[in-house]
User: What shape does this take?
Amino acid sequence: MKTIGLIGGMSWESSSVYYRDLNQGVEQRLGGLSSAKVVMSSVDFAEVTALQEQEDWESVAEILAEAARSVERAGADFLMLCTTTFHRVAEQVEAAIDIPLLHLADVVAAACKEHRIESVALIGTTFAMSRTFFTDRIASHGLEVVVPAADRHDELNTIIYDELVHGKVTDASRRKVTKLIEELWDQGPDGVILGCTELELLVKQSDVEVPLFPCTSLHVAAALDRALA
Assistant: This one.
C-alpha cells in the first residue's frame, strides 16, 4: 500500500472527511483491520484565507509548498490538496516536490467523461466559481463548464463559510442549494459538480435528479485506486 500525502486545514471539516473516507475505503476494499497509510500537514485556514483575500498567492503557494515538502519528507508517495479553492496554487506546490500531485480537477473531469457528460455545472466558493483556474483545467479535458450567475455566488459563499465549515447543516440551506442545482440543470448542463467538500455535507444524490459529481468522494476514490494499485 502506498502512503497518501494530504495537505489539510482548508477547512478542518473538509480534512476530517478526507481522513475518514480514505480509511473507510481501505477497510471496505481490504477488510479486517486495514486502514490507510496517511501523512497529513494541516495549515491554518484563517492565515491562508486572509492571504487569499489579499491576493497574495505567492505567500499562499509557499505555505502550501512547505507543507507539501514536509509530507514528502515524511514518506508520502503522492500528494492531495484537501481543498478546491486553493488548487489555485496547485502547479506551484507540485513544482516544489518530487512526488506526483493527484489534481482534483483531473479526477473530476475523468469521472464526468466516464459518464459521457459533455456539459457540467460547477458550484462552490465564490472564488472557485468566479475565477477560471479550476474550470479551465476541467475544460482542458474537452468538457463545457458553466457556473451560476454572479448574483448567486454570495448565497453559496455564505452557506459554505458561515455554516458548513463550522459543521452547521440546515434544511433551509439544503433547499436553497438543491433549488440552485435544479435551475442549473434547466439551463442545459448534464451534471453538477459539488466543487467544495463542505457541500457534500449538505447535498446528496438522493436530494436531486441531476447527476452529481462530488469532488471529495471522487478524489478519495482515485487516491484509493492509486494507493492500492
Notes: The first helix runs from residue 12 to 30. The longest strand covers residues 4-8.
